[in-house]
Each structure stands twice: as C-alpha cells, then as structure tokens.
Amino acid sequence: VQLVESGGGPVQAGGSLSLSCAASGYTNSMYYMGWFRHSPGQEREGVATIDKNGRATYADFVKGRFTISQDNVRNTLYLQMNTLNIEDTAMYYCAASRAWYPRPLAPLPYNYWGQGTQVTVSS
Q: Which of 19, 49, 87, 103 is close enough to 79 for a disulfide, judged by CB 3.0 to 4.6 Å?
C-alpha cells in the first residue's frame, strides 16, 4: 500500500485547509485509514480515523473542526480542517492499518504511512 498526501501549506489562524491522501495497492484490505500529526518536541498523535464501515473517530482537540472522509472509487482519503489554530501546526500523515484495534487513534497498529504534508498556521 502506498500513500501520498497533498494539500498542506501555510494558512492563517481561523482559516481552512483540505488534505488529501491518494492510496494505491491493496487498500481494500485495510481496516482503518487515518490522519496523524507530528510537531517538533511532541509525539505523533492521532487526529482522525475512519474504519472500513465508514465509522469515524476524532481526537478531542479536533472535534467539531475537522472532518475525515473517503472516496472509495478514487481510493482517496480526505481531511477537511476548519477553524485552524496555531496549535494545529504540524506535519500531517496519512496511514493505513490492516487490523482492528481498540484504540484507532493510536499510531501503533498502522502498517503503512505516507511521507507527510506540512501544515503551518500563523496568527
């Protein structure tokens, strides 16, 4: 499975960005697809995930602001990010997991990762 993110960039606080993740390979066998982020000095953290049944899970810090979705025809995962704040500045990664896991926002079970796309929010 190969994952390629796009859509990151600079944005002002309060603004919006939409990230995309183009997936190829045996994507139909994945249980979860998700977005994670990593900023300097911080651990990689789960942002939002979606399972093969379309059930989404969000980190508390993005609930009501971010929306995860997927287009199974185009094999693309999306993350719509609204009302961005400076704390959202990070490298955002797309990831895929083959198996169910009780904590889908944990990075551990994810087998495949993209290279990341940088999101920089300024005041």
A: 19
The whole-angstrom separation of Cα 19 and Cα 63 is 16
Q: Residue 68: how many CA atoms within 13 Å on its side-chain side?
A: 25
CA dihedral 87, 67, 79, 17 (to 10 degrees): -60
For every residue of 50-78, DSSP letters joined together read EETT--EEE-GGGTTTEEEEEETTTTEEE
Q: What is the H or E stretch that residue 37 is in?
A: strand 32-38
- Return the SS3 of 98: coil
Residues 38-96 have pLDDT tens digits of: 999 999 999 999 999 999 999 999 999 999 999 988 899 999 999 999 999 999 999 99
